[in-house]
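Model the whole thing, not chain by chain.
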Amino acid sequence: MAKALLLICDGLGDRPIADLGGKTPLEVAAKPNLDRLATEGECGIMDPIAPGVRAGSDTSHLAILGYDPYTYYTGRGPFEAAGIGMDVKEGDVAFRCNFTTVDDQMVVLDRRAGRITTGTDQLAEAVNGMVIDGVEVIFKESVAHRGALILRAKGLGSEITDTDPHHEDAKVLECQPIDPNDAASAKTAKVVNEFVKRSYEILKQHPVNVERAAEGLRPANVILPRGAGIGPKLRTFEEEHSLKATCVAETGLINGVARYVGMTIVEVPGATGGTDSNLINMAKVIVEQLQSADFVLCNVKGADVGGHDGSPDIKLSMVAKLDEMMGYLLENLPKDTFMVLTADHSTPCSLKDHSGDPVPIVFWGDGVRTDSCRHFDERSVTIGGVNRIRGIDVMKILTQLMNVAEKFGA
Amino acid sequence: MAKALLLICDGLGDRPIADLGGKTPLEVAAKPNLDRLATEGECGIMDPIAPGVRAGSDTSHLAILGYDPYTYYTGRGPFEAAGIGMDVKEGDVAFRCNFTTVDDQMVVLDRRAGRITTGTDQLAEAVNGMVIDGVEVIFKESVAHRGALILRAKGLGSEITDTDPHHEDAKVLECQPIDPNDAASAKTAKVVNEFVKRSYEILKQHPVNVERAAEGLRPANVILPRGAGIGPKLRTFEEEHSLKATCVAETGLINGVARYVGMTIVEVPGATGGTDSNLINMAKVIVEQLQSADFVLCNVKGADVGGHDGSPDIKLSMVAKLDEMMGYLLENLPKDTFMVLTADHSTPCSLKDHSGDPVPIVFWGDGVRTDSCRHFDERSVTIGGVNRIRGIDVMKILTQLMNVAEKFGA
């Protein structure tokens, strides 16, 4: 059977930059291997969600993997929680959380608890496993001051307000249901408020914080949940597309989406999510995984970091690294492997955030209707045969090329 | 008033073929008349259903005629039955059927009853018209071992399993509702099982089968229904588009779709559905019909046969015949006739089945925004002004060109 690699370069798309002579980083970079893919493949532009919609990485990946985010994306919480290895179930209400420093009036002194880096595992253990009003509370630390919370019980809602005031010197907010008549969300809000209160009671005297105080560091003495979402019911990727899939990614958010749809998650040594990431190691793991998996989703994060930092230089160096990675892949991928090369959204250096501009996409492999496009960049691909598609179309196009798609009708 | 011809070349789209120098049959064929249409018209690519979706001929024609198949396509049965002239009504449950040979333990010996060619009209008559549990049973033979069944009563469901085990030496399957709590479908399943049983009792001793046995032929001693679908409620084509329409097609499936939406069906002498079909006769009938009809749907089957056979040669010869047909049409169509030339799906020779690749489309007629595209083939049209559209868009574009479309808003 045919195999496939879907390579998503996070935030790679950009806008013309005056300092680059009115070109984008992709347009000025030397990238012979990415251009070879464009030359040998069929090119076009893709709107991750729909034209002009500013996609997040989570909503974009859902769409590209074949799950309409307007149906399935309920908030960032479930995918964040899944991304750090928590087992989110349908109906769970999940949150992203910060370890935060508050005073005894619950006024926020430091949203990130002095950017705490150690001891959060012990703090997490101290609050994990409690039961509030019959609701199971599961908490796990993530990197630095971050963590995720799952509330598990029947009949919880997720239409609630955040507790995090999002700036310092403001009081922790009371969580409330957005619609006062929504009893399911009111129940969740009540549990959240109780969880915040108990986290303070437990953490303020915790040895980790006593020690931090002794060292003159901010205590991580409360946990503030935000970004509530209810665990959606998703068919697994294998049920949806008949492909056994592995995810090779650098960030919890992407791993979370992948884990949620049942992909195998593989960690790569040296894959940091930064510009120093070892992409050749990632390529090696992809090649290895394709010995047994039918499909690999790979997300490389670095270009997005450059965009958020407003740095064309970082983007340029990431394009060079991606090109080197593509060189390795073109040499070493199993025969009969199809490739899709694209981005999950544009992160223009001028904007330092995700924009709603479309991204370039190439379909590469046997039977593809090659076109006259010779370069992989935002504007060259617009002459390609793919024209303009949406993220939700990608897996349909790929699986029909791989000849594993069902026919609709006779 | 303007008139229009929608000419659908079944399965015409293809993929690059190594033996044709990496080109498609359409790309290598000489086709001056099809290219003239592309030159004088506005070109683009079309996804019959949506990008990447592998369309059937029935679902594709529904979409192109303006009926969303995700809403209206309930299964193959209703359109198969309509295609052989049966009057399928809203709420009927219709099936495709095979005359089959079974032993007295209902084990399938030959799914096609020795590819029976004669006498099925008498066998059909013997089972037609019975009433089971208050459900009216209508059965009609089609070509060879095929037939169609309609169950008519209020409150029947169509979410049921097939009785045909789809291979020999297996026992006839019991029809069951997919959801055991679906009472409407459970009722249908019960009637189907009784129909299969009675068909065996009636047919095993039928004179046609006695005679077949005497000649050493397999008896057609049971009827196995499959592909259940409930007759959808469809507005007629005339209600939908304000156009009096005629269908000139070669296959039951397309005639079935056309009849279902109330088109007049015209049979053409010499139109065989094969590569020997007389396309000039079809063109003559089209011209004749456009004297009275506003709109003609024409489907020419041959190219699809070439694709399913994996034969670029058959496709090439069909392109030549289609070009000759187009020559006749360009000479003889009434003035003020608009034309849409397209395919219902790609049937790549390399795949021998329908693919999800888009197909070329041309809109031709007065007022069209002509473009720089000069050739009617899969890749040339991608530079055209139409860009990439979907089947469901076609009638909207055509009727506004014809100036018979309603304005939405003020």
